[in-house]
UniProtKB/TrEMBL annotation:
Protein name: IS1182 family transposase
Entry coiled-coil feature ranges: none
InterPro entries linked to this entry: IS1182_transpos (IPR047629), Tnp_DDE_dom (IPR025668), Transposase_InsH_N (IPR008490)
Domain annotation Transposase InsH N-terminal: ranges: 16-111
Lineage per the UniProt record: Bacteria, Pseudomonadati, Bacteroidota, Cytophagia, Cytophagales
Domain Transposase DDE residues, every copy: 322-444
């Protein structure tokens, strides 16, 4: 007989949401894991004692965490998604027939709370990870990656010279309080105009692209939608407006220890407190700062640095170099490079170079030989030696297996593929929430290893036979040896069984 299911859409009179959410559900375990009551104390000063009841701060932070856990990048999709999930409604503390707030309310509340409250939530979750034993703290891995901003590269404008008004403003109109006019020095604007004219002249050549010449740089163009976003280019990807997400990850279990948003046009050479990093952090100040704090920097030396100069020998006591002809190049003076780093200059006298037979191949077309070395040559040299060692290669593999997978998870599974907010503060809050969601997942999945020990008392006659054999300096009889081996084998099998987890874990 063929069956047919009829749907009558009846009104349910008895329904309890807690009975429909199983105990092993992610959001039910998450609600019991974290004590969210501290958020009321952190946000009490942000509200007035009058007016209509605002959005519950605990509900708001739970809601934006669901946004990261469900890999959503839109407040509209977040509200629609939560209305269809019973476990999320139970986690948020909402009934089935209770209407969720509007998406605009979520956006305004996100702007209301400062970044310090989001950092306090991150510290609260990280403290639980430390208490559970997920953080060792002796080794960290640091890295950064670009995150796409909520702005388009096609809408960038050129900055105006300082002291002028924008093209959309006239001298008779007052400046709107929300209008943000970004200015630039006059010499940068002149260089931009010269470069664009050169590109325009080149485009008139047959075979060239006849497109509008634009200079995608952070010196003169800016985005009116998100002025804090910066133009950056990652190898293998298109040029875009991005923010820079910087992470510090503990190498024990991959827990995020620190996260912050930076401008995308800044390099990775920021103040460090970590030990493992890639070549982007190879900076003289970083090496010197870490050594001053008695920390070992496992940072690969940048490719332009050379530990040895071909044909020259360095003498540390006299701080001088000796060339292949035996001429001494002593230290002469200090100087600064284009990026502001200090360097040391060594040179030999012009008379010695003029009379040297190696001058045509050593310094052709110059009066004398001059060497420029960084002021932090000793820290660079020690870092280069650590990089070439076997331990340095192992640390490189540890960094690649620790912090780089974390970035992959945050971008592809925690909603950092594109920001849904604008401004530096909003980007920093979003990255903090993604790191909190990642650490909460780590905390829920962590199962400490329990080691069981067992003491086995051997029979006294067996111990006496072993002791007599040792005193006589001869091997014991085979019977006690077989008994001892049998007991030890049974002990090993028993320990193996005890160390296995129960079937219901």
């Amino acid at each position: 007989m063929q069956g047919k299911k009829l749907f009558l859409d009846q009104e349910v009179t008895r329904f309890r949401l807690s009975e429909r959410v199983p105990l092993h559900n992610l959001y039910r375990r998450l609600a019991e894991l974290v004590d969210w009551m501290f958020l009321y104390d952190e946000t009490r000063t942000l509200y007035s004692h009058t007016g209509q009841p605002p959005l519950d701060p605990v509900f708001f932070f739970k809601l934006v965490l669901v946004d990261r856990l469900e890999n959503l990048v839109s407040d509209r999709r977040l509200v629609a998604h939560c209305a269809l999930r019973l476990d999320i409604l139970f986690f948020l503390g909402y009934e089935v027939n209770e209407e969720l707030p509007w998406h605009s309310t979520i956006s305004r509340t996100r702007q209301l709370f400062p970044a310090a409250v989001f950092e306090r939530l991150f510290d609260h979750v990280f403290a639980q990870c430390v208490a559970r034993g997920l953080v060792v703290g002796d080794t960290q891995a640091v890295d950064s990656a670009p995150v796409k901003a909520n702005a388009s590269l096609e809408a960038v404008l050129e900055k105006q010279a300082a002291g002028t008004r924008g093209p959309f403003l006239t001298t008779d109109e007052p400046v709107a309080p929300t209008a943000r006019l970004v200015t630039a020095p006059a010499h940068q604007l002149r260089n931009l105009a010269t470069h664009q004219a050169r590109l325009a002249a080149h485009s008139s050549v047959p075979g060239a692209q006849h497109e509008k010449a634009r200079l995608f740089s952070n010196k003169t163009p800016y985005s009116p939608t998100d002025p804090d976003a910066r133009i950056s280019l990652k190898p293998g990807q298109a040029r875009a407006l991005n923010y820079l997400c910087s992470l510090a990850v503990d190498t024990a279990h991959g827990v995020i220890r620190h996260v912050q948003a930076d401008l995308a046009d800044s390099r990775d050479s920021l103040p460090l407190r970590a030990l493992l990093a890639d070549a982007g952090y190879a900076n003289c100040s970083n090496y010197a700062r870490l050594e001053a704090q008695h920390l070992t920097a496992w940072i690969p030396v940048f490719g332009q640095y050379k530990a040895e100069i071909a044909g020259f020998t360095y003498d540390a006591p006299t701080d001088a170099y000796t060339c292949a002809a035996g001429k001494v190049l002593p230290f002469r003076k200090y100087d600064t490079t284009a990026d502001g780093n200090w360097s040391k200059i060594y040179w030999v006298t012009c008379q010695d170079c003029q009379q040297c037979p190696l001058k045509p191949t050593c310094v052709p077309g110059a009066k004398r030989k001059q060497l420029t070395r960084t002021l932090y040559d000793a820290p660079y040299r020690r870092a280069w030696q650590r990089q070439q060692s076997r331990c340095g290669q192992r640390m490189r593999r540890v960094r690649q297996s620790t912090v780089e997978p974390v970035f992959g998870y945050l971008i592809h599974h925690y909603g950092l593929r594109r920001l849904n907010v604008r401004g530096y503060a909003g980007a920093h809050k979003t990255m903090l929430l993604a790191a909190v969601a990642y650490n909460l997942k780590k905390l829920l999945k962590y199962r400490p290893e329990r080691q069981l020990s067992l003491a086995l008392a051997l029979p006294r006659p067996l111990l006496a036979a072993q002791a007599r054999a040792c005193r006589r300096n001869r091997p014991p009889s085979k019977a006690p040896t077989r008994a001892l081996a049998k007991q030890l084998l049974g002990l090993a099998l028993l320990n193996r069984v005890l160390q296995q987890p129960p079937p219901f874990c």
